[in-house]
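Sequence and fold:
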Amino acid sequence: MKTIFTSFAVLVLSASALFAQPAEERPTNPFWIGIQGGGLLSYNENCFTFKEAGKAFDLLSLQGSVSLGYDVSRKLGFRVNVNYDGKNDAANNSRQSGGGFWPYNFKSISAFLDATWNLTDEFYEGPFAPKAYLGVGLGHSYDITDSGHPWQGISKGTYMTDPNNSFGFRVGFLCELRLSDFFGLFVDFAAEAYTDNFNGLQPTEEDKKASANGYPGYPFDLRGVGSFGLALHF
């Protein structure tokens, strides 16, 4: 949690300094709107059970998002990105309950404030703009389905919560092919981490101590996101 708030403070302080950039250092058409979509890989507690059940590809789903960005200078910028996924995948505990496969899924909406760093000045000389970014945000998960687990599930009213609000942070890379001053195509890849209640399942300290019996409690719920998108600059 401390890391999340520290990252947010860095973003805010950076924004204050960047808006003091001389006008000649600011790019033309600094605002941009992006629409993107692609695949998502869920990686939560008990995700190993998907592989053991021969269902590893079920951890993949489709997602989409929209962005509003502003390039403060030729190097640095910010964007707000809002993402929707209709089927994040996870599973309830199996090893502590004598085996079995107990998958469930849930919907999610997440919003991030990203600070972007242009890796080359050639964006203003040529067509490509590779950027790295760091973001902090919030995730909201809801509509968790019932896995049918004998004691760990939404219908049992124990160990799981729905809906959930979580803090998140991420790192990523995007590269835009600028086709004109106003239009571009881009790819975007991110690794996201949310506080552990994002998937509705947050292991207790007792669960973690019992890991020798098979409870794999992660400190975060993780997602890998890959997208292809369109950008409009103005």
